[in-house]
Specification:
about 280 residues; alpha/beta; Rossmann fold; 2 domains; 8-stranded mixed beta sheet; two-stranded antiparallel sheet; 9 helices
């Protein structure tokens, strides 16, 4: 990118120099013309000067602009505000399941976790006391209006137990049975990111998020009816989600909490919706 900017700057410098040279020649020829010589050169040099000015002006208008950010005050989905601020469409990430130390599932062996996931035994997995608690909160916060929810999980080709997609059916079972969620859940390999390297995960995430927005349009959802929660997932997935939403109609969401004096999480979880748009400036 820097090399392209440098090349454009050099081209503009070169054409500006040509325009200055032609202007000097034009003035010299005009001086000769006034004295009776060089009249045939004036039209040629004048045309060349005008062309140089036009080209330089075109390149100047096409010069890269700096990108700024206009951030609106975030919406906090507390209990009182949920019905007004809840969305019809939601995109969330599903991290690889890991129970907290206080969870009843912490004593489960890996094989037992996998078996519970395959049998959709959400009670045994105790999702609310795991790293997926933020994903549960991100979804149920929009329960009053939510119609479509896309869950972007991860896939490990080398080891099924390392795929977060394995736990999605059990997670959905929890949302349907305990929280009475009636929205349509979309998941599967077509909405999953293969665990590879951060560069590929990043680009794959952007592709999936953009594709979901198109699918949402087919379901009658406008982009501003959506929110994309980036709390869970890998760091490259988080970055991909945010950059995919660089449009003023696409909002992002994060699950927040409060902290004590020592910076430790404390208190209930709550969704925060951020509305922003990029602005071009000189």
């Amino acid at each position: 990118m820097f090399e392209n900017l440098l090349n454009q700057f050099r081209i503009r410098q070169f054409i500006a120099g040509i325009a200055g040279l032609l202007l000097g020649l034009l003035l010299n020829i005009a001086s000769d013309w006034l004295s009776g010589a060089g009249n045939f050169m004036i039209p040629i040099v004048a045309v060349g000067f005008v062309v140089a000015l036009v080209v330089n002006g075109y390149l100047w208008l096409r010069r890269p602009a700096r990108v700024g950010l206009q951030l609106e005050p975030p919406d906090i989905l507390d209990e009182a505000a949920k019905p007004e601020k809840a969305r019809r469409g939601l995109i969330v990430f599903v991290s690889l399941y890991s129970p907290q130390s206080k969870s009843s599932a912490s004593s489960l062996k890996l094989e037992e976790r996998v078996e519970a996931a395959k049998s959709k035994n959400y009670k045994e997995l105790d999702f609310e006391n795991s790293n997926l608690a933020t994903t549960v909160k991100a979804i149920i916060a929009h329960a009053s209006t939510l119609e479509h929810c896309w869950l972007i999980a991860t896939i490990s080709r080398a080891n099924e137990s390392s795929s977060s997609l394995l736990y999605v059916p059990a997670l959905i079972e929890l949302l349907k049975e305990k929280y009475r969620m009636h929205c349509k859940f979309h998941f599967g390999e077509e909405f999953a990111v293969t665990i590879d390297d951060d560069a590929l995960i990043f680009s794959k995430t952007i592709d999936i998020v953009n594709r979901i927005f198109k699918l949402g349009k087919e379901e009658g959802l406008r982009e501003k009816d959506f929110v994309v929660d980036f709390t869970a997932g890998m760091r490259s997935m988080t970055l991909g989600a945010i950059l995919a939403c660089l449009d003023h109609d696409r909002n992002i969401q994060m699950i927040g909490t409060k902290y004590d004096a020592e910076g430790r999480p404390q208190g209930p979880l709550f969704p925060i919706i951020f509305s922003f748009k990029p602005i071009l400036r000189e």
